[in-house]
Amino acid sequence: MSDHLTTDRTDPTTAFDCPSCGTSSAGGPRDHCPQCLHTRHRDSADPCGAPMAPLAVAVHGPGDWRLIHRCTACATLTSAPVRADDHQVALMALAVRPLAQPPFPLGLLGRI
Amino acid sequence: MPRRHRARQEPRTGRRAQRPKDVLHGPRGHRGDAFRCLGCRRDVPVRALGTAHRNHCPYCLTSRHVDGRAPGDRGEECRAPMDALTLAVRDDGEWLLIHRCRACGTLKANRPAGDDHPLALIRLALRPLADPGLAHLTGVVPGT
Q: Superkingdom, according to UniProt (chain B) (predicted)?
Protein backbone atom coordinates (compact mmCIF):
# COMPACT_ATOMS: atom_id res chain seq x y z
CA MET A 1 0.00 0.00 0.00
CA SER A 2 2.82 2.35 0.88
CA ASP A 3 4.32 1.58 -2.50
CA HIS A 4 1.17 2.92 -4.18
CA LEU A 5 1.27 6.06 -2.10
CA THR A 6 4.91 6.86 -2.69
CA THR A 7 4.96 6.17 -6.44
CA ASP A 8 4.37 9.16 -8.68
CA ARG A 9 1.36 8.26 -10.87
CA THR A 10 2.16 10.94 -13.39
CA ASP A 11 5.59 9.52 -14.15
CA PRO A 12 5.28 7.72 -17.53
CA THR A 13 8.09 5.31 -16.66
CA THR A 14 6.32 3.88 -13.61
CA ALA A 15 2.60 4.65 -14.13
CA PHE A 16 0.27 3.07 -16.66
CA ASP A 17 -3.05 4.58 -17.72
CA CYS A 18 -5.25 1.91 -19.24
CA PRO A 19 -6.71 2.93 -22.63
CA SER A 20 -9.70 0.63 -22.07
CA CYS A 21 -10.89 0.81 -18.46
CA GLY A 22 -9.07 3.99 -17.42
CA THR A 23 -7.38 2.46 -14.40
CA SER A 24 -4.19 4.23 -13.42
CA SER A 25 -1.65 1.73 -12.13
CA ALA A 26 1.66 2.40 -10.47
CA GLY A 27 4.34 0.05 -9.24
CA GLY A 28 7.13 0.07 -11.78
CA PRO A 29 7.21 -0.01 -15.57
CA ARG A 30 4.43 -2.22 -16.81
CA ASP A 31 3.26 -3.29 -20.21
CA HIS A 32 -0.46 -3.78 -19.67
CA CYS A 33 -3.31 -2.93 -17.32
CA PRO A 34 -3.36 -5.34 -14.36
CA GLN A 35 -7.16 -5.16 -14.18
CA CYS A 36 -8.45 -5.66 -17.72
CA LEU A 37 -5.11 -6.71 -19.32
CA HIS A 38 -5.45 -4.18 -22.17
CA THR A 39 -2.41 -2.28 -23.42
CA ARG A 40 -1.44 0.31 -25.99
CA HIS A 41 0.34 -0.44 -29.28
CA ARG A 42 3.83 0.92 -28.57
CA ASP A 43 6.41 -1.86 -28.66
CA SER A 44 6.66 -3.33 -32.13
CA ALA A 45 8.14 -2.51 -35.53
CA ASP A 46 5.19 -0.30 -36.49
CA PRO A 47 3.53 1.12 -33.32
CA CYS A 48 0.28 2.97 -34.02
CA GLY A 49 -0.67 3.92 -30.44
CA ALA A 50 -4.15 2.36 -30.57
CA PRO A 51 -5.48 0.21 -27.69
CA MET A 52 -4.65 -3.49 -27.81
CA ALA A 53 -7.04 -6.13 -26.47
CA PRO A 54 -5.84 -9.33 -24.76
CA LEU A 55 -6.33 -12.26 -27.12
CA ALA A 56 -4.88 -15.36 -25.48
CA VAL A 57 -2.41 -16.75 -22.98
CA ALA A 58 0.63 -18.49 -24.43
CA VAL A 59 3.31 -20.61 -22.80
CA HIS A 60 6.70 -19.87 -24.34
CA GLY A 61 8.64 -22.16 -22.03
CA PRO A 62 8.17 -23.93 -18.70
CA GLY A 63 6.72 -21.40 -16.29
CA ASP A 64 6.72 -18.58 -18.84
CA TRP A 65 3.13 -17.36 -19.28
CA ARG A 66 2.74 -14.61 -21.83
CA LEU A 67 -0.19 -12.47 -22.86
CA ILE A 68 -0.93 -12.19 -26.58
CA HIS A 69 -2.37 -8.80 -27.50
CA ARG A 70 -4.03 -7.73 -30.74
CA CYS A 71 -4.14 -4.11 -31.84
CA THR A 72 -7.71 -2.88 -32.30
CA ALA A 73 -6.63 -0.61 -35.19
CA CYS A 74 -4.03 -2.50 -37.24
CA ALA A 75 -4.52 -6.10 -35.92
CA THR A 76 -0.81 -6.53 -35.12
CA LEU A 77 -0.08 -9.27 -32.57
CA THR A 78 2.42 -8.77 -29.75
CA SER A 79 3.28 -10.77 -26.64
CA ALA A 80 4.31 -9.66 -23.17
CA PRO A 81 5.08 -11.60 -19.98
CA VAL A 82 2.38 -11.66 -17.31
CA ARG A 83 3.10 -10.00 -13.95
CA ALA A 84 2.43 -11.24 -10.46
CA ASP A 85 -0.11 -8.47 -9.82
CA ASP A 86 -2.19 -9.12 -12.95
CA HIS A 87 -5.82 -10.02 -12.34
CA GLN A 88 -5.65 -13.81 -11.93
CA VAL A 89 -9.31 -14.45 -12.74
CA ALA A 90 -8.98 -12.45 -15.96
CA LEU A 91 -5.86 -14.45 -16.87
CA MET A 92 -7.56 -17.78 -16.15
CA ALA A 93 -10.64 -16.70 -18.11
CA LEU A 94 -8.41 -16.08 -21.14
CA ALA A 95 -6.58 -19.38 -20.65
CA VAL A 96 -9.72 -21.57 -20.45
CA ARG A 97 -11.65 -19.76 -23.18
CA PRO A 98 -10.77 -22.22 -25.99
CA LEU A 99 -11.89 -25.14 -23.84
CA ALA A 100 -15.11 -23.35 -22.87
CA GLN A 101 -16.00 -22.83 -26.54
CA PRO A 102 -14.74 -25.92 -28.41
CA PRO A 103 -15.50 -25.99 -32.15
CA PHE A 104 -16.28 -29.72 -31.95
CA PRO A 105 -17.95 -31.79 -29.21
CA LEU A 106 -15.30 -32.72 -26.66
CA GLY A 107 -17.19 -35.95 -25.97
CA LEU A 108 -16.21 -37.25 -29.39
CA LEU A 109 -12.50 -37.11 -28.53
CA GLY A 110 -12.73 -40.58 -26.98
CA ARG A 111 -13.51 -42.10 -30.38
CA ILE A 112 -10.33 -40.83 -32.04
CA MET B 1 -0.28 -30.45 -84.57
CA PRO B 2 0.17 -34.08 -85.66
CA ARG B 3 2.81 -36.16 -83.98
CA ARG B 4 6.02 -36.62 -85.95
CA HIS B 5 6.78 -39.99 -84.48
CA ARG B 6 4.49 -42.83 -83.75
CA ALA B 7 4.08 -43.36 -80.05
CA ARG B 8 6.00 -46.30 -78.69
CA GLN B 9 3.80 -49.36 -78.28
CA GLU B 10 3.74 -51.53 -75.23
CA PRO B 11 4.82 -54.93 -76.53
CA ARG B 12 2.60 -56.83 -74.09
CA THR B 13 -0.70 -54.92 -74.36
CA GLY B 14 -0.27 -53.26 -77.76
CA ARG B 15 -1.42 -49.92 -76.38
CA ARG B 16 0.50 -46.70 -76.42
CA ALA B 17 2.94 -46.40 -73.55
CA GLN B 18 2.24 -43.75 -70.94
CA ARG B 19 4.37 -40.69 -71.60
CA PRO B 20 6.48 -39.27 -68.79
CA LYS B 21 5.00 -36.16 -67.20
CA ASP B 22 6.73 -33.07 -68.61
CA VAL B 23 4.39 -30.27 -67.40
CA LEU B 24 5.74 -28.66 -64.25
CA HIS B 25 3.10 -27.11 -62.01
CA GLY B 26 5.01 -25.88 -59.00
CA PRO B 27 8.34 -24.12 -58.41
CA ARG B 28 11.45 -26.16 -59.15
CA GLY B 29 9.42 -28.87 -60.82
CA HIS B 30 7.25 -29.69 -57.84
CA ARG B 31 3.86 -31.05 -58.78
CA GLY B 32 2.26 -28.27 -56.70
CA ASP B 33 -0.53 -30.15 -54.96
CA ALA B 34 1.26 -30.91 -51.68
CA PHE B 35 3.98 -29.54 -49.41
CA ARG B 36 6.45 -31.13 -47.03
CA CYS B 37 5.81 -30.13 -43.42
CA LEU B 38 8.82 -28.43 -41.84
CA GLY B 39 7.95 -29.87 -38.43
CA CYS B 40 7.06 -33.54 -38.90
CA ARG B 41 8.22 -33.98 -42.56
CA ARG B 42 4.88 -35.39 -43.64
CA ASP B 43 3.48 -34.85 -47.12
CA VAL B 44 0.48 -32.54 -46.72
CA PRO B 45 -2.03 -32.00 -49.55
CA VAL B 46 -2.71 -28.34 -50.28
CA ARG B 47 -6.48 -28.70 -50.50
CA ALA B 48 -8.15 -28.53 -47.10
CA LEU B 49 -11.67 -28.42 -45.75
CA GLY B 50 -12.93 -25.06 -44.59
CA THR B 51 -10.10 -22.86 -45.86
CA ALA B 52 -8.77 -21.66 -49.19
CA HIS B 53 -5.23 -21.20 -47.86
CA ARG B 54 -3.79 -24.24 -46.12
CA ASN B 55 -1.04 -22.67 -44.06
CA HIS B 56 -0.14 -25.28 -41.48
CA CYS B 57 0.34 -29.01 -41.14
CA PRO B 58 -2.86 -30.73 -39.92
CA TYR B 59 -0.85 -33.22 -37.81
CA CYS B 60 1.70 -31.11 -35.92
CA LEU B 61 0.21 -27.63 -36.72
CA THR B 62 3.63 -26.28 -37.79
CA SER B 63 3.46 -23.47 -40.36
CA ARG B 64 5.92 -21.45 -42.42
CA HIS B 65 6.53 -17.71 -42.42
CA VAL B 66 5.66 -16.92 -46.04
CA ASP B 67 2.68 -14.56 -45.90
CA GLY B 68 2.88 -10.83 -45.29
CA ARG B 69 -0.17 -8.94 -44.07
CA ALA B 70 -2.85 -10.67 -46.14
CA PRO B 71 -3.42 -14.45 -46.05
CA GLY B 72 -1.97 -16.07 -49.14
CA ASP B 73 -0.07 -13.01 -50.41
CA ARG B 74 3.32 -14.79 -50.04
CA GLY B 75 4.90 -11.39 -49.40
CA GLU B 76 7.31 -12.44 -46.65
CA GLU B 77 10.91 -13.45 -47.30
CA CYS B 78 11.67 -15.01 -43.89
CA ARG B 79 10.39 -18.53 -44.78
CA ALA B 80 11.38 -19.97 -41.38
CA PRO B 81 9.18 -22.55 -39.61
CA MET B 82 6.44 -21.21 -37.36
CA ASP B 83 5.45 -23.18 -34.26
CA ALA B 84 1.87 -23.31 -33.04
CA LEU B 85 1.96 -21.29 -29.83
CA THR B 86 -1.55 -21.13 -28.46
CA LEU B 87 -5.24 -20.91 -29.30
CA ALA B 88 -7.50 -17.88 -29.16
CA VAL B 89 -11.25 -17.57 -29.58
CA ARG B 90 -12.87 -15.01 -31.85
CA ASP B 91 -16.01 -13.17 -30.85
CA ASP B 92 -18.13 -15.52 -32.97
CA GLY B 93 -16.73 -18.55 -31.11
CA GLU B 94 -14.33 -19.72 -33.81
CA TRP B 95 -10.89 -20.85 -32.73
CA LEU B 96 -7.74 -19.11 -33.95
CA LEU B 97 -4.30 -20.68 -34.04
CA ILE B 98 -1.48 -18.34 -32.99
CA HIS B 99 1.82 -19.17 -34.71
CA ARG B 100 5.24 -17.79 -33.77
CA CYS B 101 8.13 -17.62 -36.21
CA ARG B 102 11.20 -19.52 -35.00
CA ALA B 103 13.57 -17.03 -36.67
CA CYS B 104 12.08 -13.55 -36.20
CA GLY B 105 9.46 -14.12 -33.49
CA THR B 106 6.57 -12.70 -35.54
CA LEU B 107 3.13 -13.75 -34.34
CA LYS B 108 0.39 -14.73 -36.80
CA ALA B 109 -3.23 -15.73 -36.28
CA ASN B 110 -4.58 -18.47 -38.55
CA ARG B 111 -7.88 -20.29 -38.86
CA PRO B 112 -7.67 -24.01 -38.13
CA ALA B 113 -8.62 -26.16 -41.13
CA GLY B 114 -11.40 -28.71 -40.98
CA ASP B 115 -9.00 -31.65 -40.98
CA ASP B 116 -6.61 -30.40 -38.29
CA HIS B 117 -5.98 -33.13 -35.75
CA PRO B 118 -8.38 -32.54 -32.80
CA LEU B 119 -5.95 -33.99 -30.26
CA ALA B 120 -3.20 -31.64 -31.43
CA LEU B 121 -5.59 -28.69 -31.01
CA ILE B 122 -6.74 -29.83 -27.56
CA ARG B 123 -3.13 -30.35 -26.50
CA LEU B 124 -2.44 -26.75 -27.46
CA ALA B 125 -5.53 -25.49 -25.63
CA LEU B 126 -4.49 -27.33 -22.47
CA ARG B 127 -0.93 -26.06 -22.46
CA PRO B 128 -1.50 -22.96 -20.26
CA LEU B 129 -3.48 -25.04 -17.77
CA ALA B 130 -0.81 -27.73 -17.56
CA ASP B 131 1.96 -25.20 -16.99
CA PRO B 132 2.55 -23.99 -13.43
CA GLY B 133 3.59 -20.52 -14.60
CA LEU B 134 0.74 -18.60 -13.02
CA ALA B 135 0.94 -20.57 -9.77
CA HIS B 136 4.66 -19.85 -9.40
CA LEU B 137 4.12 -16.23 -10.28
CA THR B 138 1.45 -15.70 -7.66
CA GLY B 139 3.20 -17.77 -5.00
CA VAL B 140 0.58 -20.53 -4.98
CA VAL B 141 2.58 -23.65 -5.77
CA PRO B 142 0.42 -26.76 -6.21
CA GLY B 143 1.09 -29.61 -3.81
CA THR B 144 2.41 -27.47 -0.96
A: Bacteria
User: Is pLDDT of B141 > 80?
Assistant: no
Give the three-state DSSP class for B106: coil
Q: Please check whether residue B32 lies inside any domain of the structure.
A: yes
Residue at B19 is within a domain: no
Q: How many domains does chain B have?
A: 1
Asked if B20 is an interface residue toward chain A (Cβ–Cβ < 8 A), one would say: no
Q: Do A58 and B93 touch (CB under 8 A)?
A: no
Could you say which DSSP state residue B142 is in? T
Q: Across all residues in chain B, what is the average pLDDT?
A: 82
ipTM, interface predicted TM-score of the complex: 0.82
> Which residue range(s) make up the domain with B102?
27-134
Residue B72 lies in a domain: yes
CA distances from A77 to A39, A47, A53, B42 (A): 12, 11, 10, 29
